[in-house]
Amino acid sequence: MNQQLKQLVESLSPEWTAWRRDFHKYAESGWVEFRTASIVAEKLQEWGYVIQAGKEVIRDEARMGVPSAAFLAEQEKRALGQGARPEWLPVFSGGFTGVVGILDTGRPGPTIGFRVDMDALDIQESDEQDHLPAANGYVSINPGMMHACGHDAHTTIGLGLAQVLMAMKDQLKGRIKLIFQPAEEGVRGAKAMVEAGVLDDVDFFFSGHIGSGVPLGEVVCGARGYLATTKLDVTYKGYSSHAGGHPEDGKNALLAAASAALNLHSIPRHSQGSSRINVGVLQAGSGRNIVPGAAYLKVETRGATSDINEYMLERAIQIIKGAAVMHDVQESIEIVGMANSCDSSSELIPFIRSQAEKVEAVHAVRDFVVAGGSEDATYMLQRVQDNGGLASYLVIGTTLAAGHHNEKFDIDERVMEIAIQTYALCALHAGELPGWSGENTENGEK
Amino acid sequence: MNQQLKQLVESLSPEWTAWRRDFHKYAESGWVEFRTASIVAEKLQEWGYVIQAGKEVIRDEARMGVPSAAFLAEQEKRALGQGARPEWLPVFSGGFTGVVGILDTGRPGPTIGFRVDMDALDIQESDEQDHLPAANGYVSINPGMMHACGHDAHTTIGLGLAQVLMAMKDQLKGRIKLIFQPAEEGVRGAKAMVEAGVLDDVDFFFSGHIGSGVPLGEVVCGARGYLATTKLDVTYKGYSSHAGGHPEDGKNALLAAASAALNLHSIPRHSQGSSRINVGVLQAGSGRNIVPGAAYLKVETRGATSDINEYMLERAIQIIKGAAVMHDVQESIEIVGMANSCDSSSELIPFIRSQAEKVEAVHAVRDFVVAGGSEDATYMLQRVQDNGGLASYLVIGTTLAAGHHNEKFDIDERVMEIAIQTYALCALHAGELPGWSGENTENGEK
Amino acid sequence: MNQQLKQLVESLSPEWTAWRRDFHKYAESGWVEFRTASIVAEKLQEWGYVIQAGKEVIRDEARMGVPSAAFLAEQEKRALGQGARPEWLPVFSGGFTGVVGILDTGRPGPTIGFRVDMDALDIQESDEQDHLPAANGYVSINPGMMHACGHDAHTTIGLGLAQVLMAMKDQLKGRIKLIFQPAEEGVRGAKAMVEAGVLDDVDFFFSGHIGSGVPLGEVVCGARGYLATTKLDVTYKGYSSHAGGHPEDGKNALLAAASAALNLHSIPRHSQGSSRINVGVLQAGSGRNIVPGAAYLKVETRGATSDINEYMLERAIQIIKGAAVMHDVQESIEIVGMANSCDSSSELIPFIRSQAEKVEAVHAVRDFVVAGGSEDATYMLQRVQDNGGLASYLVIGTTLAAGHHNEKFDIDERVMEIAIQTYALCALHAGELPGWSGENTENGEK
Amino acid sequence: MNQQLKQLVESLSPEWTAWRRDFHKYAESGWVEFRTASIVAEKLQEWGYVIQAGKEVIRDEARMGVPSAAFLAEQEKRALGQGARPEWLPVFSGGFTGVVGILDTGRPGPTIGFRVDMDALDIQESDEQDHLPAANGYVSINPGMMHACGHDAHTTIGLGLAQVLMAMKDQLKGRIKLIFQPAEEGVRGAKAMVEAGVLDDVDFFFSGHIGSGVPLGEVVCGARGYLATTKLDVTYKGYSSHAGGHPEDGKNALLAAASAALNLHSIPRHSQGSSRINVGVLQAGSGRNIVPGAAYLKVETRGATSDINEYMLERAIQIIKGAAVMHDVQESIEIVGMANSCDSSSELIPFIRSQAEKVEAVHAVRDFVVAGGSEDATYMLQRVQDNGGLASYLVIGTTLAAGHHNEKFDIDERVMEIAIQTYALCALHAGELPGWSGENTENGEK
């Protein structure tokens, strides 16, 4: 079946490149993937997948870091103007931009879940001519939004996988669940899909990331050591006054924020493992000659373990509060994202290795890599593992023009073929999955 | 003539209120007063004034703090949609939003200049119901722009004065020059009008501000001690990296900016007089999990004398540069505004006092007040004084709902009648101006 | 009598130079002027003054910023080794180092008080050869203590004045009170003498400072605008831990102190008048590889008025507390010094001017100067003025080698002759004092 | 031979306790271990060791962080007054306080080196009664110096080992080299002994630390992951001025230091391994009312690898320099200590394990521990390993009253018996050392 797969991939590949560039051009950030999700839903349905979408797969109360209603509405309107499918938009309206496509073979076998993410970053993409998307005309046209992490390719991989599996469905067993998640950036979206129950019937789960320091042609079967993380929005409210006429009347929220930022970065390292802190955004003040009465920070803490992340969080909150006392301003702190630390299932690694090694373009396979960041797929891995299933997070290498989250981030698009083949082989060889023989008749037996 | 003036004012007053509220609703910030300036030009022309406008009265190279071409174009377009006069827009296009109206009586006499400013502030106006403009439906509909300093009233005062003087033109001598200046906030616009020569033929010059801590019914004849000031835009350019995966690769522009902000405010006081420093705006970073690669600050220094301001500026630049060294980022500093320290001409005070005392609603007149802020009308006062003329900056009291530059700033609109009468009397009684007898035949004699 | 005075001054002058250099060499800081005070007491007594000293003139509870008992004892012991008078030491023991010498003429007349201060600063004096005291062998031998403000000369002026007045006592009226105050630096000592009642019978009061930016040969009759001030000692107590092994266990008092210092200096200027803040000393941490568990700051606030100083103090306390919250450490704040804002009595200025003009070496007399610093003689001026008396604080010019409080501070010693003559003339011409005719028989009449 | 060893230890143990308490009482910090070193030299010589000491074992140019000549002289004088041996002092004068004792059996065999360190910390020891050394009268009498890390016990262990090995010398082979190192705190001394060649003939090397989180009765055979470290002294020189009178003239070194401290702690974590930064000491300013003209910081960086430490160091220097630019002060940076990252030789672990297990009081032996701090014995391990030898750094557990470097640090003294027995067994069983059979005749064969 590998040969058939290879031919399919070859013939479909140009289409995938076009899709990825289209998603890249119309980059949409977390919870406003209206255009992206509607295209995904339309295609999956067209190809014969059973679709679950919107509130069915996104639990409202578990969403984190959702933009304002006004922004959601404005973005939905923009998406419509940029080609979002009008028949699908109502389903996603209000920021419920998740899609799940299900292929039930009717034959006994496990439920295998694949998850990709769809959101862009809040970055202004470079328009310099040494940046390929700019030179070739698919640079993001949405100001301040850019696929600088590769989720455009992830979405495409999900769609390509859907095509390939549907084309080869006679060779599959059990059920396939393709999960298209919104709002991975800021680790805001996975929890809402997990709490909607999307993962509850999944026996084997695969997700992954392209790039991440691994070059094209290499595949890492399982990532370990994703950092636990908490995302905070901090607002300081002081009192504005005229900086020339009455400086003494002001309560300076900008200085509170600046003090907080400096001191947050000075939280001591933890001897028991990695920790991180970042004040990624600071916005303060309204005018040059006005003592700034308001300030806003986007902060995140991380830790190699949940305990270390908790330590960072406690210290951070202390500092944020102290800075408010200092400048006699009011602080408010909102938790807008969270992810666990979680590891891939060791038992699954040899299986993935054997599939990846079948892919011609793969010249090196590694078992494990230690992840440096956070990823809310960890919620999904954990849920599957908690239910007795196995789950792994792969890294599919691709050579990058500039690092993730850089304004000139760009990928070698051939990674999409490799990823699609690797995932497809995992589905096609379900019979080799650990603890699963072809004779098993139902999910319940695992 | 005072009686005639009083009746005129009574009859026109409702119209003025309407105009002020209209300007308030369509607040336009510095260099983008497209709608405001086009309405001013249209009305002045209609009433019979000779109009100078656009590049004729604004010297391009002397403009400071001009927004980007894109923003200018976008705002011009918006202005058109909000009622800007299409026939006037081309004159102002690109941010040359100054207007001068000239009334030449043909009779011998001095050239008397009056200057008002037209721009709003970059403040989001309060929409709470205890804020009158919100309760009464003329809250600013332009997001992030608000007349929180009273320039809507200033513009209206200029227009009302134009009406009144034209109506009483038979009682005037010499020439009247009504100067409508853009971009006073940030002290960016006056210099460009001065360098275009607008003040060069002015013998007596009056400008002023409403409010400023003086209650309704009081007039201050001359402000002293305006602070010299310099406005700086600072940009830090570092390097973004993933805050979880590769924090060590980042060059943190946000921390440079935060350090700069804190240390700027710590510049020592000067023993020889007042000094000020304000970081009014700080914007840094693009995403929560990205080490911030860019930051932007709006800064201003002030001093009781130009020397003290120079001292503050030198220290500020040193700190801005040191913060860049600290975090290994590149800094750039742009001067976007400047004003002198300048005093009103003492010789003019008794004349102004005698006119102000004729206004029925004025119950107290003070000679001088010490100003706490900066004001670029000082460029105009200075130019007139340098040419041997006399100039004064008045304060026309009005009781405020909240201080200048506050999101709930609001005025007692009756101040407009007082201001118009006071200014009109100064023009109507030109014969009493110091060093000017009715017998003088030409400007040259001053 | 001026001629006699002049001859006296000429003959005594070499002795004064020797005394000043001796005091300079054995510099003693506030509350430990054991050697200095004992020499003063011995000489005054020898010359025939009635002596009040120690607890008689220093109210214990009103002392501020008194060193530890251990330090006091150690310094007293050192003083003994350096020539302090053993018979006087018990009087001053424990830091009651004030002396008052009284000369009662028995003739009707006012009580005239003169006050000088005796303490050195906590500065390590320069031993470079371009510093005269070092080159000439009278550099301070007490480590970390230096007469860098001229109180060695002040003490000498007090003694010289005592000599001269005693020599000319037949020409005096009323009573003379010579007040030798400890601990002026840090404005710690005056209040304790005032509260001991030392000023309660004084009708006319003179104190003053040499130098202060006024060159040799000039005398300023009255200083105005002394800044109100408060002196604070701040201690942060955190928790030490090994910086390599367990950084996360530490509570970093050094970072709390550093944050406090930066933010204290950022307290906004006050629009109503001068304000000051200084963190003069910061000491934190015990070892390089230990997370600092303790920190200590010496802070002072000032204001042109007591209200402005109060504003600075409130903001400072807020910041100090906020920094403690930030780093989860305990703060303690102790007030260790205070002075008022106070002005010289205008009525006294013409009298002082007329005396100063009689001094040959004086070539310029100014009525007033605006002081930039603080001075606790203000407590004494205030008490005398509150009782209906008149008081002034003079500045007797002297050209300085380096500014006050610099490690190379040095004076032109001729200032002592000028000061002594000026003060002596004020006493000798008591009959010319405002509101005081020779006929008055009692203090009560003022 | 174990039995004989055990009896020796039992009989000598009380003496050891006395020595340790004596060293504790007369704590001497790095490079001024005059008393300690002279006692060590005297005893070793008395017992028959060949002594190398002073400049013979300390290379002058490789010493780091040596105190001033004045302090060295003052401390040497104090040591003499506290019982230092006068005949030995000249050898150590000037801070060459290292001693090596050599025992050559004359029999073939390896050269085995043992190293202990002798210096105390700059900590003021607690005198509270719940602190045993205070309650029992051997609290440090040297102000600001305290054995808060256990080097008093280390020195005693070295001496006890010397006694035991000399007593059992007939059962030894090859040569024993006992190395008593000064100035381990601040990692300042080891490099100078290595560069003097002390380690060049050592085939097997053992050093170790007591405590370090390991309880009494446990021995760890080899420490891994000592952090590379660099120690920096930073001085800022600005300009002092009167904080009330002329604040604008000052160049504030305290604010430069505070800014540096805050920003140093904000150096980003490194994704490739542990990093550390500590500003352990900050001292700035001379008086409350003086703008601080000088500041001093003790800083250290660390890294899991030398590259990471280098990264921290480069960033630190950048920040230190930037802070100087900010406040227009001059900075100077001096490297005063350094240590490598280094691991114990794996091949040696089983040998050490087998010896430690013979010690009765040892109930648990672990192979490895990951160290959290730095240690300059790493220079010695590295030199021995570079020469083809084997080296290990042990941890000999002891239960602590308070953590290392705390003012109430105290040990369970029984650890000394365990350490001496373990080390002695390592020497006595030299024949079992890896790659070393009794037949080998010379070092050269290894």
In short:
The structure is a homotetramer. Chain A has about 450 residues and is an alpha/beta fold.
Helix and strand succession of chain A?
HHEHHEEHHEHEEEEHEEEHEHEHEH
Q: What is the CATH class of the largest domain in chain A? A: Alpha Beta
- Relative strand content of chain A: 15-25%
The termini of chain A sit apart by 26 Å
Assembly classification = homotetramer
So, CATH architecture of the largest domain in chain A?
3-Layer(aba) Sandwich
Q: Please report the total strand number of chain A as a whole number.
A: 14
Helix content of chain A: 25-40%
Judged by helices, strands and strand pairing, the structural class of chain A is alpha/beta
The biggest chain-chain interface is:
A-B, 61 and 61 residues
* CATH level 3 topology of the largest domain in chain A: Aminopeptidase
Q: What is the fourth-level CATH superfamily of the largest domain in chain A?
A: Zn peptidases
Biggest sheet overview of chain A: 8 strands, mixed
Q: Can you walk me through this structure?
A:
Four copies of one chain form a homotetramer. In chain A, the strands form three sheets. In chain A, strands 1-2-4-3-5-14-6-13 form an eight-stranded mixed β-sheet, sandwiched between helices. With about 450 residues, chain A is α/β, with parallel strands linked by helices. The model of chain A is unreliable at about 440-445 (pLDDT under 50). Chain A has two domains: about 1-225 and about 340-445, Aminopeptidase; about 230-340, 2-Layer Sandwich (Alpha-Beta Plaits), CATH 3.30.70. In chain A, about 35% of the residues lie in helices and about 20% in strands. Chain A has helices at about 1-25, 35-45, 70-80, 90, 130-135, 150-165, 190-195, 255-265, 305-325, 350-355, 375-385, 415-430; strands spanning about 50-55, 100-105, 110-115, 175-180, 205-210, 220-225, 230-235, 240, 275-285, 290, 295-305, 330-340, 365-370, 390-395. Chain A is globular, with a radius of gyration of 23 Å. In chain A, helix 8 packs antiparallel against helix 9 and helix 10 crosses helix 12. Chain A contains twelve helices and 14 strands. The two termini of chain A are about 25 Å apart.
